[in-house]
Amino acid sequence: MLPLSQIMRKNQIAYHSYADDTQIYLSLSPNDYSPIDSLCHCIDEINSWMRQNFLQLNKEKTEVIAFGSKEEVLK
User: Superkingdom of the source (predicted)?
Assistant: First the structure.
């Protein structure tokens, strides 16, 4: 888990891990979408690391949940 935590810290993405389950999360201000770019870059790096180590994300168990006002979530 250490290499993955280093990737998340480098991209300034918060995370919580338990056994083989990891949740990554972030908050952002209205009209500031740069954290989403960091999240996408982090996921790309995680995928790359996993491929190099003969692992794969389970896409059926991968979810994105957005919280906010209806107007902001629909953007």
Answer: Eukaryota
**What is the DSSP secondary-structure string of the chain?**
-HHHHHHHHHTT-EEEEETTEEEEE----TT--HHHHHHHHHHHHHHHHHHHTT----GGG------S-HHHHT-
pLDDT tens, position by position, 24-36: 988 888 788 888 8
Specify the residue for token string 């906010």: 68
Mean pLDDT of 42-47: 93
Quote the tokens at residue 70.
Answer: 């209806």
Give the Cα separation of 5 and 49 in Å (integer): 12
Closest by CA position to 57, among listed 71, 46, 70: 46
Q: Which amino acid appears at position 64 of this protein? A: V
Q: Pairing state of beta strands 14-18 and 21-25?
A: antiparallel
